[in-house]
């Protein structure tokens, strides 16, 4: 059962990478708080989507986590725990 859920989650992540809106310029996706609806639907709860952004260095979405001492960029994760990234161009 666990393998089946992971396979479904991996498939959804792959599809999410292909579902980036084409009407927006690539620079718009790098802006803070501007994540596609498909990514927002995949994201696990208790993550700050208003601070989320796509980092071109690794092609993954990151958000700011405000801890008791500092604010840190951490990967935006799906419900299964894996990071949400776009498909890599080859």
Feature tags:
single chain; 90 residues; three-stranded antiparallel sheet; 30% helix; globular
Please, could you describe this protein's structure?
The chain has 90 residues and is α+β, with helices and mostly antiparallel strands. Strands 1-2-3 form a three-stranded antiparallel beta sheet, with no helix packed on it. It is built from three helices and three strands.
Number of strands: 3
Look at the helices and sheets and give the structural class.
Answer: alpha+beta
Order of helices and strands: HHHEEE
Strand arrangement, major sheet: 1-2-3
- Give unreliable regions as ranges: 19-26
Question: What's this model, at a glance?
Answer:
This protein is an alpha+beta fold and 90 residues long. The protein is 30% helix and 17% strand.
Question: Helices, strands, pairings?
Answer:
Blueprint (H helix, E strand, L loop, with lengths): L1 H17 L7 H4 L7 H6 L10 E3 L4 E7 L4 E5 L15
Antiparallel strand pairs: 1-2, 2-3
């Amino acid at each position: 059962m666990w393998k089946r859920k992971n396979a479904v989650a991996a498939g959804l992540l792959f599809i999410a990478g292909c579902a980036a809106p084409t009407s927006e310029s690539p620079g718009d996706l790098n802006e803070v708080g501007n994540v596609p609806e498909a990514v927002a639907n995949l994201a696990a709860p208790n993550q700050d989507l208003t601070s989320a952004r796509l980092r071109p260095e690794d092609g993954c979405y990151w958000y700011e986590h405000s801890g008791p001492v500092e604010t840190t960029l951490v990967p935006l994760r799906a419900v299964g725990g894996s990071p949400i990234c776009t498909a890599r161009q080859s």
